[in-house]
């Protein structure tokens, strides 16, 4: 719980109310007139009406049921038919931080929220990249999406004809773990690979390619896949920019919503054909198709996992090294969080 999670894209939070469940906490988000993002508990202190289904006026939420009115710190500043407002009339407020076009929320002990801990994805908010993105809610637990993204050999089978080619599954990976920073690195460098339509159509490369996939998983929420595509034999120069290659920064926010649901924020930033609308549209559509292939598979897996007997033993092989490292780090974070937050509830900021 003592972690930063991506709650929304900055552009999703405007002059309306956005309700989202993050780590089991129903939250309501809005943006004040000054542009600050606010996150409050999405439950009116009076009769629990969802504040996300209420009204926003002058940076305050007026409950849609009986009109309790909350300011941006969660304090109730007006109640119907009486002047005196009970001292306990407030809803918890959460710490949020907007960075790299993402809205992060700190769930857990609010005093521990340190924005310096938020991992960066600067290409999402850079004029040197063009980004397509979306969010799909999964009816699957968070760990299934972590497994999925840490083992890209599934591209060959689940995404064949889109981003998968035989070489992805055939090429061994290397895995490294930074235990202090809680980051897992998984690399797969294909020196002479078929170019999937996904890249041939967007880059214009004809023929075979050098295809590198360098994954960084910043547990628990941010997943980065640095993808480098170049004609076979074109390697990064010793000095100077790697401008003979095409770079795609595939970025995922993996946010647990409930025990069995996950918010799958997917973003694809490219450093080529920046103003080419046809490429943008092609990448938006084909990435969405690929994401939906994963959604269908993971929702199916959730049903399988949910219905199986306890102690079912999976079998792991070399391709699972990254996924297993991620599981180990997540288990460590959970254990550490349980020690720190035993019994603590979020507190309203005064
Ligand atoms: S439930 Fe919100 S004012 Fe009654
Ligand atoms: Fe996938």
Automatic annotation (TrEMBL):
Which ranges carry the Rieske domain?
Answer: 4-105
Instruction: Please give the Pfam families that the UniProt record associates with this protein.
Output: Rieske, VanA_C
A molecular function (GO) term: oxidoreductase activity, acting on paired donors, with incorporation or reduction of molecular oxygen
Keyword field contains Amino-acid biosynthesis:
no
Is Cytoplasm a UniProt keyword of this protein? no
Q: Which domain of life is it from?
A: Bacteria
Q: What is this protein called?
A: Rieske domain-containing protein
């Amino acid at each position: 719980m003592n972690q930063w999670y991506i709650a929304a894209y900055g552009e999703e939070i405007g002059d309306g109310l956005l309700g989202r469940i993050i780590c089991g906490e129903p939250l309501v988000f809005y943006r004040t007139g000054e542009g600050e993002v606010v996150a409050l508990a999405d439950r009116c202190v009076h009769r629990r009406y969802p504040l996300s289904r209420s009204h926003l006026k002058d940076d305050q939420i007026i409950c849609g049921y009986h009109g309790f009115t909350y300011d941006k710190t969660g304090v109730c500043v007006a109640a119907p038919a009486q002047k005196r407002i009970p001292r306990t009339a407030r809803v918890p407020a959460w710490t949020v931080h907007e960075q790299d076009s993402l809205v992060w929320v700190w769930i857990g002990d609010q005093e521990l929220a340190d924005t310096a801990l938020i991992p960066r994805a600067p290409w999402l908010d850079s004029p040197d990249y063009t980004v397509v993105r979306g969010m799909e809610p999964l009816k699957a637990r968070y760990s299934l999406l972590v497994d999925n993204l840490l083992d890209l050999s599934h591209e060959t089978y689940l995404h064949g004809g889109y981003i998968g080619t035989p070489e992805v599954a055939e090429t061994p990976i290397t895995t490294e773990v930074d235990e202090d920073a809680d980051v897992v690195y998984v690399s797969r460098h294909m020196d002479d690979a078929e170019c999937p339509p996904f890249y041939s159509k967007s880059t214009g490369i004809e023929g075979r390619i050098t295809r590198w996939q360098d994954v960084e998983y910043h547990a628990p929420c941010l997943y980065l896949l640095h993808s480098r595509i170049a004609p076979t034999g074109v390697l990064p120069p010793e000095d100077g920019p790697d401008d003979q290659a095409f770079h795609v920064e595939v970025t995922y926010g993996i946010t647990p919503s409930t025990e069995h649901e996950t918010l799958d924020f997917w973003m694809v930033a490219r450093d080529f054909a920046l103003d080419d609308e046809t490429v943008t549209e092609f990448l938006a559509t084909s990435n969405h198709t690929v994401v939906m292939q994963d959604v269908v598979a993971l929702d199916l897996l959730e049903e399988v996992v949910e219905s199986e007997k306890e102690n079912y033993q999976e079998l792991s092989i070399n391709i699972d090294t990254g996924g297993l490292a991620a599981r180990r780090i997540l288990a460590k974070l959970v254990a550490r969080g349980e020690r720190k937050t035993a019994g603590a509830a979020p507190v309203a900021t005064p």
